[in-house]
Design a protein that fits this description.
This protein is an alpha+beta fold. Helix content is 19%, strand content 36%. It has a domain at 20-198. Strand 9 (174-184) and strand 10 form a beta hairpin.
Amino acid sequence: MASAYGNGFAVPATKDAGSSIAQAGFTITTHKLPILKAGPIEQMAEKLGISPPEMIFGDNAIRIEHAKSGWSIEFNAFDALDRVDKTGNSMLKVSYSKEWQKNREHVQEEIKEVVKPFDWSYSTDYKGTVTSAEGGNEFEPSENQIPLALLQRRDPILLFDDVMLYEDELADNGITLLSCKIRVMPARLLLLSRFFMRLDDVLFRIRDTRIYVEFATGEIIREYTAREEKYETVRQKLAITREDVPAIMRDPNRLVDLLSIVEQTRESSTLK
């Protein structure tokens, strides 16, 4: 597993602004450190085989561990970027791609790599990096839904954190970013990993991975939902409102219900 602290990159001496909590046999840890500098970026680019995003928080991560079963799930930038299409088959074939490549020529020279075509929007279907004891605690397809009613209760929040993994402005023609939020309550937790992309005049894309843990039963539910919509379709939907359209177009929380679901999967596992 290539994790934020296990991928061969040096751990910086900078103070970690993350948090950690133990609850009902689970340990939840977040790491929040500055953007990677040139050396670690070069190492990451060589391992990934693609040019890196403009902003990589390669030492950031969120990790949920269950010591008794040996199960854990982690969200980190390296593993997310390793899920980006490196064949170029999924690359958005628009005029901006040439501009993006031109803007990255100096990066490619710095890392001295011959970078093959790849999805320059850094779109990822990353659902987290899972570690489990051999032959146990694997996710299986499930119809169990995340219990929204329980999450809407006014339970105390023991830990909340928002961790950025990477971001890129797509040659000033939009934005792509991956971030994770986690909320831990006394009886359960919810993690949301969200990939958001806006390519101006072309496409909106949101890919959400939710991890729900019920501490008392050890049940883990993983739900993945991918949404997309044409830029012009979203613009027309927003045009009939009296709200600040440019601001909404930068806010995935406001956009998510305007995009069509193109893929959805649900899995579960029960830890013992």
